[in-house]
TrEMBL record:
Lineage, highest ranks first: Bacteria, Bacillati, Bacillota, Erysipelotrichia, Erysipelotrichales
This protein's name: N-acylglucosamine-6-phosphate 2-epimerase
UniProt function note: Converts N-acetylmannosamine-6-phosphate (ManNAc-6-P) to N-acetylglucosamine-6-phosphate (GlcNAc-6-P).
Catalytic reaction equation(s): an N-acyl-D-glucosamine 6-phosphate = an N-acyl-D-mannosamine 6-phosphate
Biochemical pathway: Amino-sugar metabolism; N-acetylneuraminate degradation; D-fructose 6-phosphate from N-acetylneuraminate: step 3/5
InterPro entries: Aldolase_TIM (IPR013785), NanE (IPR007260), RibuloseP-bd_barrel (IPR011060)
GO MF assignments: N-acylglucosamine-6-phosphate 2-epimerase activity
Originating species: Absicoccus porci
GO biological process: N-acetylmannosamine catabolic process; N-acetylneuraminate catabolic process
Amino acid sequence: MKTNDPRKKAILESMKGGLIVSCQTQKDDPIYTDTMHIKMAQAAAWAGAVGIRANSPDQIKDIKEHVDLPVIGLWKVWHDDTDVFITPTMKEVKAIWEAGAEIIALDCTKQRTHEGTIAWNLLDQAKKEIPEAIFFADVSNYEEALHAIEHGADIVAPTLYGYTKETASIEEPNMREFARMCRDFKDEAYVMMEGHIYTPEDAMKCIFLGAHSVVVGSAITRPHLTAKRFVDLLSGYQDNWRDAEKAKH
């Protein structure tokens, strides 16, 4: 069931029907500066966003100091032997919480991690060690969403649809599957849309289908990838912009 904790509920309900902007930069991004993530978050707040999604303890701390919005924190850690990179261990979970994020996002797929565990098993441990946190389950399909909810996730979203071996070739959101998640899980958890949303119209479709809120990143805060989508189309898809979006840093 959805949380009855008054503090958690107030944060989650404040996001209803709104836009959460993913404000992330990596040092090899062409737009990178030491303060770019702060400017992104300030721009999102100015526009009326209801929350920020941010990567790494340092960037989370910076954003919390400058923007008064709930933060969904994660920490991306890449390894060559796995596709699990979003908050893969308790080290990252604890660091995100200590950095000030109210909400902790972690990989809740059934993929195997660098440490040899199944990614979705981390949720139980994280909830036990940090019960005060709100947990955001990044999944790739309905089965993983169901598993995450059964193990106490407060939020589920198909963030990793397109990032697992089974879905790697997919570029568009699966609206029918997302609608099924909203229909079946709306009383058990907050279902949010994240991934492959590039226009306000698509975001509004998700709200219409039942999304509690919508997370958008690349289409807003990564202009180099927006430009590359145009270039790839104009060049007859000789290069795939998605390879750049999925690149390990």
